């Protein structure tokens, strides 16, 4: 599908896109309150993030839906969550220890917190949206999400995500999301905004943020 108004072509990503899109993910998430909390040293963060987002990109291709633009300057990784999806906690712990080394405990805490607070209602989960930092603020991220949002509306499904800063929160509010209860990460961690784009209703409104019962997750 071609997006007009000089917006890019949006298409499914493939393994051939790995190099550029892993770079986009690592660079787009390199700065910010979550990044500072996870790995204070920016040089070490760059090394670990490249490994982390290599894993995230290939996991998205294998288990979710990954979209990119014709110029490979943006990427979105979605996961259908049509029923509760258990995580192999021990396998994930081993993966994060290989990826993050001494920083693994905070990565484990971050992922476990997000996983425990996933809504039970069937939805699609936007795990990552990244735009090349040199191309941000041009509507590329919104364009990348537009087609998937339309598909979700046709299916009558909501979308869910976590916004890690106020700028991203404002973007998602403009795209029809509403803010739910926040997450405050421990050990002086940042605030995370849980966001929900409800399914369309017969009255023209959208379903409200669902009640979430935290799921227990033990190692």
Key attributes of the depicted protein:
219 residues; alpha+beta; Aminopeptidase; seven-stranded mixed β-sheet; 20% strand; globular
Q: Could you explain how this protein is built, in words?
A:
The protein has 219 residues and is α+β, with helices and mostly antiparallel strands. The chain has a single domain (10-197), classed as Aminopeptidase (3-Layer(aba) Sandwich), CATH 3.40.630. Helix content is 41%, strand content 20%. The chain contains 7 helices and 7 strands; from the N terminus they run βαααββααβαβαββ. The protein has helices spanning 18-28, 33-38, 42-63, 89-100, 104-116, 140-155, 166-174; strands at 10-12, 65-69, 74-81, 123-131, 159-163, 178-184, 191-197. Strands 1-2-3-4-5-7-6 form a 7-stranded mixed β-sheet, sandwiched between helices. Helix 1 packs across helix 3 (42-63) and helix 4 (89-100) packs antiparallel against helix 5. The chain is globular and about 50 Å long. The relative contact order is 0.16. The mean pLDDT is 92. Residues 8-198 form the N-acetyltransferase domain. InterPro entries: Acyl_CoA_acyltransferase, GNAT_dom, Trichothecene_AcTrans. This is N-acetyltransferase. It comes from Micromonospora andamanensis.
């Amino acid at each position: 599908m071609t997006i007009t108004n000089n917006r890019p072509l949006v298409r499914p990503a493939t393994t051939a896109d790995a190099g550029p899109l892993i770079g986009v993910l690592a660079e787009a998430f390199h700065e910010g309150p979550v990044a500072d909390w996870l790995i204070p040293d920016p040089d070490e963060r760059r090394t670990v993030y490249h490994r982390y987002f290599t894993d995230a990109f290939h996991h998205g291709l294998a288990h979710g839906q990954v979209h990119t633009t014709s110029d490979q300057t943006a990427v979105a990784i979605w996961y259908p969550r049509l029923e509760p999806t258990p995580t192999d906690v021990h396998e994930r712990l081993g993966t994060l220890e290989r990826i993050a080394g001494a920083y693994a405990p905070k990565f484990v805490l971050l992922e476990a917190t997000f996983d425990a607070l996933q809504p039970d209602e069937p939805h699609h989960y936007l795990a990552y949206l990244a735009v090349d930092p040199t191309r941000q603020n041009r509507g590329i991220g919104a364009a990348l999400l537009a087609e998937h949002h339309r598909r979700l509306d046709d299916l009558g499904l909501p979308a869910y995500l976590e916004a890690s800063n106020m700028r991203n929160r404002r973007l998602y509010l403009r795209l029809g999301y509403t803010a739910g209860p926040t997450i405050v990460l421990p050990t002086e961690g940042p605030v995370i905004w849980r966001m929900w784009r409800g399914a369309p209703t017969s009255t023209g409104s959208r379903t409200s943020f669902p009640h979430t019962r935290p799921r227990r997750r033990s190692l």
